[in-house]
Every structure is written in structure tokens, then in C-alpha cells.
Amino acid sequence: MNAAPQLFLLDGSSYIYRAYYGVRDCATTAGMPTNAIFGFTRMLLSLLQENRPDYLAVVFDPPREETFRREIYPAYKAHRDAMPADLASQLPYIRKVVQALNIPALVAPGFEADDVIATLARRYAVEGLQVTVVTGDKDLLQIVGDGIGLLDTMKDLRSGPQEVLDRFGVLPELVPDVLGLAGDSSDNIPGVPGIGEKTAAELVRRFGSLEAVLRWISLVNGKQRRENLRLHADQARLSKTLATVRYDVPLELSLTSLKRQTPNLPLLLPLLKELEFSALELAFTPPPPGVVEIYCDGSGRDSGPGGYGVILRYGEHEKELSGFEPAATSQRMELTAAIRGLEALQKPKRVRVFSDSQYLVRGMGEWLAGWIRSGRLETPDALKNQDLWQRLASLSANHEIRWEWVRGHDGHPFNERCDRLAKRAAEAGIRAAEESIRVDQQAREREVGMDVIPLPVAPVRAASLQVEEQVVYEADDDGQLLLC
Fold it and tell me: Considering the chain, what is the average pLDDT of its residues?
């Protein structure tokens, strides 16, 4: 059964402010601030790489003074400070980046981004797409339902109906009722004085809706609370209207127009160069014609669980590989990562292998020939990790390879991606191993037909995934003794 096509709707304004406050002290040599542009682009690139949606759009807000909510309630968001000048100056460049990435940028006059997102999410969820709304805005939790979920990339948190219930105490469709009673200080929505979010949720659960609460005020506990509800009933209804997203924004666009496209590199690369984003420029620059680039990294420590991550690039194509070893050293995982990358090649190629492991790069680029000449490569137990070095030597003989070292954990886009792949593979392997232990233990309990007090199982800690400081090693004749 084929998976449903994925549509990602990105709350552009939320991303921009998160980028602006999350990245500081970033500017060109001429002094132009670029922190929001850099953070936004990096977050967007990470989102695309890790999720690979079939369809995508970035939705922006119009000026807050030009929305229907401001018309019906002039105080709506009026307490917010004006956009910082150094952020406002970066907005044109953010739009240029989105345009160069060939991502549709949507704005609907009179409506906020939330309304546009809600309209598109419902429209295409009904058509069978799986819609993911990328935002940190709690207001959009009200649209979660069949085929619609939220993703907060900053917290790596996905929200469905259960998460909404945990957060607000009510189902998604009743979130506006809660906000109508409790208000929302971030948007200057007044609500009812004396009623907080917890009390509002209790009232909505008990009576079923804000309208039912107002209809049965006499049954609400607390004299002052009943009085406040009577005095501010119209304000509560207005607050609910302000907090409720619209699903009827007039949008004349087709699903085809939202289909994900490859970036417009002739437009994007000069823009990144102008902004002096060398790491991002590297991330979007394709390999030279006829060359396969392999980026690889291993994650592990002295001994224990380990993971590896590999990215292969050829032309405009990319492939990710990752895996887990229950018992391995850091060195073995670095070598294993390179092996898995080379094994993925179906025929001889010109290859550039990049790694932050000097052990791997210097071993293959400097020391291997000496090991072969001296016979150490084939002499039993003459080398540490001999089985892996032999496998690498065999694979390398099939290709024209250049081994290149990159400084790890230094903002290199592919090294960081490989590191994340390796760590996630290790963590997934650890969870699977722990689950296997649990299942085996339950099976033993069923076999003996009695309750067994479980023995404490020492969890496999992710301490093996710690980042290690880069060390530049001195080498003897072949370097092997200094690294083992």
C-alpha cells in the first residue's frame, strides 16, 4: 500500500522570528545583518532534507493592521512591539531565498497565515494527502485531525489529537472555546477576567462548548466567576471568534503548483555567495560532473553501541544510509560508514570520500600502501580493525577515490547531517535492543507460568555518542601505532 503524499505547510512568520532570536551576531563583512536569513535558510534546508515532502508552501502574514481580526477588534495584537529594524531589513532576502528554492510563498490579503494554512490543510486532507503544519504556534493546534498534524521542529515535537488533549484538556475543535474563555495574552485576546486556561478547559469539558457555558451560567461554580461570565459574555464570544482560524480563505491555486521542485541554482548560489553563507553554498552546490561524493561519519566510543551515517551525492541525486552495531568502537564505526558508502556503488566511479576521522582518511590516503607493501594488511592481527581495512582496500580497488578530511562539528552541512544520522541510528538500535530484552523476559515469564521479578537491566546509554574533540595526530611511518 502506497503512503499518502505529504504536504508541508510552513508558518513563515513563526520560522522567521525563531531564526532571528535563535541566531545572533551574524552579518556580512560589510556589516549587513544576516542572522534571520541564515537561521531561516538553515532550518528550511534541514526540514527538506529530513522530511522530503512531496508538496510544500511557505505562508506569510500580511501586515497585522490589514487583517479582518484587527477590523473587528482594533486591540488585536496591538500591544506587540514593531518588528526590529535589523529584522525588517532581512525580509526581502528571506523572500529571495524562498523564491530561489522554488517554494511557493503564499499571502492572502485580509487573512493571517493561520487562516491560509487551515484552509489548505483541510482542503488537501480531504483529498487524501497527509498534511503537516510546521509551526510553534499553539493556535494552530485546533486544526489537528484526520490527515493533519503539527510539527514543531525546534522541539522536535509532533502533535496529533492526543497531544492537543494533553496540552489543552479538550479535543482540537474545542481549543477556540477554551481560548475564548481564557483569552490569549500573546495575541491580546481578552477572554473572561478571572478564568485561566485550566478553568476554561474544565468548563468546556463539563458543558461541551463556550456557548453552552454561557447558556448554563447558573450551574457554574463560584459567584464571582458566574458574574464575570454574565458581564463579559459578548467579550467571550468575540474572543472565540478571534481565536478561531478560518477555513474559507479564497485561494486560487492547484495542488500541482505546490509540488516540490529542485532549487534554481543559478539564482540561489550567487545569492548565498552575496550573503557570505559558505556552508549553505556548499550544501546546495552539486558534485562535479561524473563524480560521486560520499560523506560519512560514525558515532561511538570505547566499546558498546554505535551508529553510522552516510550521504551519497551524484548530480542532483542524494541517498542517505544509516545503521547500528550493538558492540563497536568509534574507530570501527568510522570505517564501517565508509564501507557502507562504497558498497552502495553499483559500478566503478570517480569518488570523493569526506570524513572527519583522521584515522580513516589518513589510513586510506597515506598508510594503506605501506601496509600492503610490508604485508601488514594480510598478516593476521598485524593491524587493529584489520577486517575493515581489508574490506576498504578491496572496495577502493574498484574506484578512483580521493579521501578528504573535514573538520567535524564545525558547521559543515553534510558532516553534521551524517552525525545526526549516525546518532539516530544508534539510539534506534538501543531502543530496539531494550525492547528485545523486554519481550524475551515476558516470554520467559509466560513459559514458567508465574510472575517473575524482573532483574534490573542496565540501560545502554547514549554516552557512546558524545562529541569528541578533534585532535591533529602526529604520524610515524604508517601512523597506525599512534592512533590505536
Answer: 89
- pLDDT of 451 reads 53
The fold of 6-243 is Rossmann fold (3.40.50)
* Catalytic site residue from 145, 365, 409, 445: 409
pLDDT in tens, 96-132: 999 999 999 999 999 999 999 999 999 999 999 999 9
Grid coordinates given for 12: 513563515
**Dihedral, 333, 335, 341, 345 alpha carbons, nearest 10:** -150
Helix or strand (DSSP H, E) at 355: strand 350-355
- Decide if 281 contacts 273 (C-beta within 8 A): yes
CATH of domain 286-415+469-483: 3.30.420.10
Task: Write the CA distances from 465 to 146, 300, 362, 414, integer angstroms.
Answer: 37, 5, 23, 18
Residue 364 DSSP one-character state: I
Q: Which of 298, 300, 304, 309 is catalytic?
A: 298
CB 426 within 8 A of CB 306: yes
In the set 363, 419, 478, 479, the catalytic residue is 419
Do residues 286 and 302 lie in contact, with contact meaning Cβ atoms separated by under 8 Å?
no
Strand partners, 134: 10, 151
Between the CA of residue 247 and those of 8, 70, 106, 198, 437, what are the distances in Å?
17, 18, 15, 27, 48
Q: How is the beta sheet containing 6-11 ordered, strand by strand? A: 105-106, 55-59, 6-11, 130-134, 148-152, 157-159
Residue 298 annotated as catalytic: yes
Domains 6-243 and 286-415+469-483 share a fold: no
Catalytic, 297? Answer yes
From 61, 115, 139, 297, active-site residue: 297
Domain coordinates in residue numbering, the chain: 6-243, 286-415+469-483
Select which of 11, 114, 187, 334 is catalytic.
334
Active-site hit among 137, 184, 356, 416: 356
The CA-based diameter of the chain, rounded to the nearest angstrom, is 94
pTM over 0.85: no
- Sheet harboring 400-405: ordered strands across? 317-325, 306-314, 291-299, 350-355, 400-405
